[in-house]
Amino acid sequence: MNKVRIDKWLWSVRIFKSRTIATDACKAGKVKINGEAVKPSYLLSEGEIVWVKKEGFHFQYRALQLIEKRVGAPIALTCYEDITPEAEKKKYEDWFSGGIPVVEKREKGAGRPTKKERREMDEFKNI
Q1: What does pTM read for this prediction?
Q2: Pseudo-torsion of CA 75, 13, 53, 125, nearest 10°?
Q3: Is 83 part of a structural domain of the chain?
Q4: DSSP string covering 35-63, please?
Q5: Total structural domains in the chain?
Q6: Domain region containing 10
Q7: Residue 83 and residue 85: Cα distance in Å, rounded?
C-alpha cells in the first residue's frame, strides 16, 4: 500500500502554504488522525481522516489520493474530500468574508496615546 508523509501531503494538496508551516502545525499538535496528534513523519494512507486546526477553526479532510509533489488547486481538490461539519464551515466563511479589519486612526501629529487615553479606548472597546 502506498503511503506519504502527512506534512508533505498537507502541503501538496494546498491545505498549508508551505511545508514548513505544515510541519510546524504537526509539531504543535494541530494535526490529528484518529483523534491523536501526529508527528510530521506520520505515514498517511488513503481513506484516513485528517483533522486540522488552522486559524482557530477545525477542518476535517478524507485523503482520497496520496501525492508528494505540489499541484495546482483544481487537481489538489480531487485528492481529498472536505468533510468539515457545516457549522464550522459557516463560522469560517463568516469570519473570512468579514473583509478588512477596522483600524483605529488618530489625527496626524497627535502621537501615541497616553496611558489614560489607552485605558479609555480599551474601556470603550470592552477589552
Answers
A1: 0.72
A2: -70
A3: yes
A4: TEE--TT-EE-TT-EEEEEETTEEEEEEE
A5: 1
A6: 4-96
A7: 6
